Amino acid sequence: MEPQTLFLYLSLLILSLNFFFTNLKPRLVRLFQPSLESRVKTALLSRKEVAEFLDSPIVEDEEAEEEEEEGDIVSNANFTFEFDPYMISKAESVNKALDEAIPVGEPLKIHEAMRYAILAAGKRVRPILCLASCELVGGQENAAMPAACAVEMIHTMSLIKDDLPCMDNDDLRRGKPTTHKVYGEGVAILSGGALLSLAFEHMTTAEISSERMVWAVRELARSIGTRGLVAGQAMDISSEGLDLNEVGLEHLEFIHVHKTAVLLETAAVLGAIIGGGSDEEIESVRKFARCIGLLFQVVDDILDETKSSEELGKTAGKDQLAGKLTYPKLIGLEKSKEFVKRLTKDARQHLQGFSSEKVAPLVALTTFIANRNK
Predict the structure, then answer these.
(1) Cα 310 vs. chain centroid, distance in angstroms?
(2) What three-state secondary structure class fits 218?
(3) Of 112, 191, 229, 327, which residue is least crowded by CB atoms under 10 Å?
(4) Residue 334 Cα to chain centre, angstroms
């Protein structure tokens, strides 16, 4: 090899190593050990609010709650919102769209696994949240449907990954054997990757301006990377078995804001973006959805401790067995239930200013998430 060629190769190697240590390595470190500063920035509650909440007595009197509900933004409206028919109708529309988006084809096993995982009897909370947020700001359901399906594809991908033996090692999901139990780990991993890529491809079929599409794609990508799902999952794994004296509510909130709440938040924000919402409207929707995203996880933690596998449609008590951090484990069951009430109230407050009629589905969805039993 000539000296000039050797020098060129060495130069490229040095530049590559320099790029790794100056760019990639810090990002990997932040991924598995997010800084205290970043945890504080993403927290819903301030340090002072956390301390006050934990030190406050558990409220058993329901009179105060009834007084608060008297001024609810929907309860005084001159109409009755039928939530169950609304959810059934929207879920049917989402299921039809998902069925059409993932037809059976080659490679056959991959498509079968994708359809098996995504067409299972899910609640469709995320896509319905996307559609409702679009309609809240004046948009139409058909405009937001590609984004709604994209969010559900990514959510399903995350469930496939979570259930793998190397992660949560679960055998049951949505009342059925998990994808890797039916199709094997290899096919499960590949089907998850296929759902992830299809999500972005499918969302770009929405008929909106290029500016708003780029905005939507950026929001969705951010929600599943090192500032979203991956960050929450990584922190969750590294926190298994930690002594409760070593962690606080902010630590647990960081995990669940990123692992669970971020995709619910993104679903709502995508709907508001596609529906043509203003910056102010989108920010209100974002704050609302972050509250119900964390609310969803707190309720999940409570159900994991209080319900059976048959009732949940997935393995109950698995978090406790794995030594994972949960709200009941950290602050107790009764305090966790009180936190549910607080998040429900905060979520509703962020919807102030919107039309009572248009906001009704989101208020009802908040109540549904808070009171769900599986």
Answers:
(1) 24
(2) helix
(3) 112
(4) 24
Q: How far is CA 140 from CA 134, 136, 276, 277, 362, in A?
A: 7, 9, 10, 12, 16
DSSP secondary structure letters along 247-264: --HHHHHHHHIIIIIHHH
Closest CA to 336 of 374, 290, 288, 304: 304
Residue type, 283: E
> DSSP alpha helices (H): ranges in 176-261?
179-183, 185-203, 210-224, 229-238, 249-256
Cα separation, 368 vs 296, in Å, equals 10
DSSP code, position 332: -
Which helix (H) or strand (E) segment holds residue 177: the answer is strand 176-177
Give the Cα separation of 156 and 151 in Å (integer): 9
- From the CB of residue 325, how many other CB atoms can be counted at a distance below 10 Å? 20
Total-model pTM: 0.79
User: According to the model, what pLDDT value does residue 168 have?
Assistant: 86
How far is the C-alpha of 126 from the C-alpha of 293, rounded, in Å?
A: 10
Which residue would you say has higher pLDDT here, 322 or 7? 322
Query: In angstroms, what CA-CA distances link 363 with 148, 330, 347?
Result: 19, 28, 8
CA atoms within 13 A on the CB side of 174: 15
Amino acid identity at 30 = R
Q: Nearest CA to 174 among 189, 192, 156? A: 156
Cα distance between residue 354 and residue 197, in whole Å: 35
C-alpha 226/C-alpha 214 separation (Å) is 19
Q: What is the pLDDT of residues 186-244, one digit of tens each?
A: 999 999 999 999 999 999 999 999 999 999 999 999 999 998 999 998 998 888 877 77
Two structure tokens written together for 144: 């937001």
Does the CA dihedral 209-214-218-224 come out positive or negative?
positive
Phi, psi of 278, rounded to the nearest 5 degrees: -75, 170
